[in-house]
Structure formats: C-alpha cells, structure tokens
Amino acid sequence: MPAEAIRYINNIAAFLFGGNVDSLCLTCASCGAVYHVHYSNAEINRVLDCRTLAKDRINAQHPDHERSILL
C-alpha cells in the first residue's frame, strides 16, 4: 500500500484508507485545508519524506484540494 495524504474535514477523514496515520497535521498555507499522511508498514521509513512531499503538493493544489494525494 502506498502512502497517501488524506484530507480531513471537521476532524474526520474524507474516506477510509487504512494503514497507519501520521499524527502530524499538514495544512494548506493559503486556506488551512487539513491533511494527514496515511502509510503502510512498508513506508514507515519514508514518513518524513512523505510529509515533505505532501506539504508541497497540498499547497500546489490550492484552491482545488482533492480528498487524497498519492505520495
């Protein structure tokens, strides 16, 4: 299972992805859209890289935020 950034609305995931959920909240710098990185055990060593990539993609998507971003 790949890592994905999943959008959260009212503290609820936009859809169920499964796997592990990173506790760090990532937000869009322009509008504050909230995402968390969901990842499999195979991706556990890449979580820091996934956060960086997700942060860049979240800000680049503004204002058209998707429910998930494949990392």
Features:
71 residues; globular; 21% helix; 6 strands; 6-stranded antiparallel sheet; alpha+beta
Tell me what portion of residues adopts beta-strand conformation.
25-35%
Number of strands: 6
- Rg over CA atoms: 11 Å
The SSE order reads EEEEEHE
Low-confidence stretches: none
Helix content: 10-25%
Mean pLDDT: 93
Rounded to the nearest angstrom, the distance between the terminal CA atoms is: 11 Å
Shape: globular
Continuous helix count: 1
- What number of structural domains do the residues give? 1
**Sheet/helix structural class:** alpha+beta
Report on the biggest sheet.
Answer: 6 strands, antiparallel
Short recap of the structure:
The chain has 71 residues and is α+β, with helices and mostly antiparallel strands. Helix content is 21%, strand content 30%. The longest helix has 15 residues, at 47-61.
Could you please describe the fold and organization of this structure?
The protein is an alpha+beta fold and 71 residues long. It has one domain (4-70). The chain has one helix at residues 47-61; strands spanning 4-9, 12-13, 20-21, 26-27, 34-39, 68-70. Strands 1, 2, 3, 4, 5 and 6 form a six-stranded antiparallel β-sheet that branches.
